[in-house]
Amino acid sequence: MNSVSHCFESLRAKNECALIPFITAGDPDLQTTAEALRAIDRSGADLIELGVPYSDPLADGPVIQAAATRALAKGTRIDGVLEMLAGTVPALRAPIVLFTYYNPILNLGTEKFLQKIAGAGVRGLVVPDLPLEEADALLQQADSFGIELTLLVAPTSPRERIEAIARQSRGFIYLVSVTGVTGMRSQVQSRVQDILAQMRLLTDKPIGVGFGISDPQQARQVKDWGADAVIVGSAFVKRLAEGPPAEGLLAIGQFCHSLKAALTTP
After folding, report:
1. b vs e for 143-159, b when ≥16 Cβ sit within 10 Å of the residue's Cβ?
2. DSSP string, 43-96
3. What integer pLDDT is reported at residue 155 of this predicted model?
4. What is the pLDDT of residues 40-50, one digit of tens each?
5. Which of 8, 165, 176, 212 could disulfide-link to 206, CB 3.0 to 4.6 Å?
6. Cis geometry, peptide bond prior to residue 62 (ω within 30 degrees of 0)
């Protein structure tokens, strides 16, 4: 499996925008999560962001919070998630980027955590509550395990902070499109276009835009504004949770295909 960086290099060479779906591990169960990873991998996902359920998900909106609550109630824990990934990742084309909060990393121990996720085939990591000022140690340790730690830029971040985050972020830079939590929005805020243009003057690293993108039209709009990747979460989680697992798996596969088509149609 390619690294996150190599995936973006390949897509840039073809002038393609990456599609990064997000799903929550363990909702409704880990077997369905494995099937969901395979379904969206087949349906056009370039990278896949997998959320580890956590009891206090500060960055997540109601759809993903509810999914995490259901997963935790079913007994989903990090070791089970990684065991599932170890058996699933070898069949996937898209690199897995793990989305987790910092407290579970600290509880397990940073080195042990990174060793475990690397062994399970994870290639990238997003920690939404890790501030830039405290990221150095985790960045260096992640590098040593071949894990690319991606940092987030808020829409309110000043130029100097964006530049500092861009220097440190690995794989790509995660631009949060809204001030607030994840969730589906009726439209993407137009200031994202201005922030993308500003970031282009500061870095040549790939930029992924997430939070609030919920349909193919919005995905295409963000691509046309200059994003290197479009990250879609709540809309996938919602579809997977509706109805029996078989229906949810079919729905996310079709949705993934429609998003990728919107990103590749001339």
Report:
1. eebebbbbbbbbbebee
2. TT-SSEEEEPP-SS-TT--HHHHHHHHHHHHTT--HHHHHHHHHHHGGG-SSPE
3. 86
4. 999 999 999 99
5. 8
6. no
Beta strands, E only, the chain? 18-24, 48-51, 96-99, 124-126, 148-150, 152-153, 173-176, 207-210, 229-232
Task: Give pLDDT tens digits for 60-112.
Answer: 778 999 999 999 999 999 999 999 999 999 999 999 999 999 999 999 999 99
Give the end-to-end CA distance of the chain in Å, rounded to a whole number: 28
156-190 pLDDT, tens digit each: 889 999 999 999 999 999 999 865 444 444 445 57
Sheet containing 124-126, strands listed edge to edge, beginning at the edge strand earlier in sequence: 148-150, 124-126, 96-99, 48-51, 18-24, 229-232, 207-210, 173-176, 152-153
pLDDT band at 56 (very low <50, low <70, confident <90, very high): confident
Q: How far apart are CA 225 and CA 207, in angstroms?
A: 11
49 included as an active-site residue:
yes
Q: Which of 27, 49, 148, 228 is catalytic?
A: 49
224 carries an active-site annotation = no
Within 10 angstroms of residue 92's Cβ, the number of other Cβ atoms is: 19
Residue 61 near residue 182 (C-beta atoms within 8 A): yes
| Candidates 27, 46, 60, 215; catalytic one | 60
Q: 265 by DSSP, 3-state: which?
A: coil
Q: Which residue has the tokens 């990103």?
A: 263
